[in-house]
Each structure stands twice: as structure tokens, then as C-alpha cells.
Amino acid sequence: MDRLIPWLRRSGWLYGLLALVLVLMAWRFAGGGGSGDGAAAPATRVTRRPDVPAMTLVHVAGAVRRPGVYRMGGDSRVIQAVRMAGGPTGRADLSRLNLAAPVSDGQQVVIPVRAAPGSASGAAGPAGEGSGPVSLSSATAAQLETLDGVGPALAGRIIAWRDAHGGFSSVDQLDEVPGIGPARMEALRPRVVP
User: Fold this and answer.
1) 36, part of any domain
2) What is the tally of structural domains in the chain?
3) Where are the alpha helices (DSSP H) in 3-111?
4) Which domain covers residue 105, as residue numbers?
């Protein structure tokens, strides 16, 4: 014991300092360290933007194994909606969809059917009659241009609006796209789906 006391006197301050550092680190990681610059805060993974809802309901229809309404995370993509619906059927034409597009609450994702052999490439006639409704949230510029009164410029504005707002949850939102007036809106309404 006599040998231990001088050693504690010499190195005791070192152990005291080490204990103080450990206590401060534990306090900081437990959340008591204030906001600071966040350098010593524990790493957390940010999973969604504040403006994205936690959950969304998405209606998946068309050429999927289990069409229906699915609850998804607010930052989900079209490909995840297709997978939740059991995946595409053998007749699905996924090349006509933007699988990376974000889905929004209340959106309908329609998986198109591949054109039958010997028929046109999916759009019949100049206005696309017989090709079914066009999905505003997943259509390509070429598909949008099959609609009456929609040229390359307007198709580009529709896609820009869709990208800026995370897709269409209602056909009525088409009215917010610059260049679509009341007459064009009413002409497009029966030909499109969100």
C-alpha cells in the first residue's frame, strides 16, 4: 500500500482527467450537449424530407399480378409500387413507365400492356385512340404528345411540373401546368389518369 500511494499521487490526475472526458462524452452522446455545430452528435440517417408524408396510398392498376391500393412510404418510387403489387405480368410494358419516378399520395400507377404482335407500337392513330388513358405521373413525352393539343413544349412542361411536385395525385392538377387552359383541360380530362 505504501508503494501504491505515491503512484496514485503521480498519476491520479491523469485518471481523473480521463474520467472527466468519459463523463463529458457520455453526456454529449446522450443528447445533453446542446445543438452546437453537430460535430460530436451521433450519426443519424435522414430518411425523408420534411415535406414528404410518412405514408402514402397508391393505386396500382394494369398489368400487375395483384392490382390494388397499397400503403407505401412517402418517399417511395414507381418500381416499389410495382413490386408491392406482385410485380409485372408477362404482358406488361415497363419501358413505357418511368420506374424511378416518385409516387404521391392518392396517385394511380397504371402499368401498360405491351402491344399485340402485328399491331401498331401501342398508340393507334394520330391522337392515340384506342391506346387507353395516359398516366400523367408516368408517361413519357412521346406518350403525352399523342394527346390532342399536346406538343413537345407542353409535354415538357407537364413533365417538369410532375418532377417538381412528385407526380399527379389528381387530373385536376393538370390545370396548374402553364399553357393548359379550361378548354384544353376539358378535352384532356377523359384521356388521362393521375
Assistant:
1) no
2) 1
3) 4-27, 78-84
4) 55-114+127-193
